[in-house]
Amino acid sequence: MSETVIFRDDVSVELIKASASDADVIWAARVSTAGEQSMDEIGEDPARSAGLINYLARERHGSPFEHTSMTFFVSAPIFVFREFMRHRIASYNEESGRYRELKPVFYIPSQERKLVQVGKTGAYTFEDGTAEQFDISVKAMKDAYLIAYDSYQKMLEAGVAREVARVVLPVATYSSMYVTMNARALMNFLSLRTAREGSHFPSYPQREIEMVAEKMEAEFAKLMPLTYGAFEKSGRIAP
């Protein structure tokens, strides 16, 4: 095996570019009552701006939040992306195992990752596993990953096409993608993929996608503090 195998228990999220501010929301909303406005007029009255955004979020007037754009670069296991792409409210471009040789970077849970599911679908919680369960899980994962990647390399060396050889790789293989969405779509994503007290509709996301969502949420909160505050006040419901 020529490549050095890397085991990770984290995810990476980087805000690549953004055209997203509270002023964009206010500018879009006010056209309905004031017609065209200069962006220079926006923000002259902070209290009024906050009040308008809170009103839009509370009454679920969502379209003004769509006049924004955020592009993130995400590095995470493939199984996280399969969950992510269930949200049909974003644009995605992911690296392709058809066109490039995939690197041996694989996910293993951290020791803080809860391992035991208690209850049944729709009414369950996750609890800490024992040290033995953690050790068994990590060893089983690493053994499987090494066998899979060795098989992948043997197929490539034999001249098998990358798009065929990749089928032996596990969904714990790390991939990367660009994802672009507007603030309304991001709030919808966060409402479903984070577990927070005070949420009007409780959510029970898989921890690994929640790790991605938490990093995206931190960037969103910095870019659009008034909108983010309104999202929190409304019980984390997307407008």
Automatic annotation (TrEMBL):
Key words of the record: FAD, Flavoprotein, Methyltransferase, NADP, Nucleotide biosynthesis, Transferase
Molecular functions (GO terms): flavin adenine dinucleotide binding; NADPH binding; thymidylate synthase (FAD) activity; thymidylate synthase activity
E.C. number(s) listed in UniProt: 2.1.1.148
Highest taxon listed in the record's lineage: Bacteria
Details of cofactor binding: Binds 4 FAD per tetramer. Each FAD binding site is formed by three monomers.
Catalytic activity: dUMP + (6R)-5,10-methylene-5,6,7,8-tetrahydrofolate + NADPH + H(+) = dTMP + (6S)-5,6,7,8-tetrahydrofolate + NADP(+)
Annotated dUMP binding sites: 83-86, 94-98, 166, 193
Keyword Methyltransferase recorded: yes
Enzyme class: transferase
Pathway assignment: Pyrimidine metabolism; dTTP biosynthesis
Record bears the keyword Cell division: no
Needed cofactors: FAD
Subunit and interaction comment: Homotetramer.
Functional summary from the UniProt entry: Catalyzes the reductive methylation of 2'-deoxyuridine-5'-monophosphate (dUMP) to 2'-deoxythymidine-5'-monophosphate (dTMP) while utilizing 5,10-methylenetetrahydrofolate (mTHF) as the methyl donor, and NADPH and FADH(2) as the reductant.
Family per similarity comment: Belongs to the thymidylate synthase ThyX family.
Protein known as: Flavin-dependent thymidylate synthase
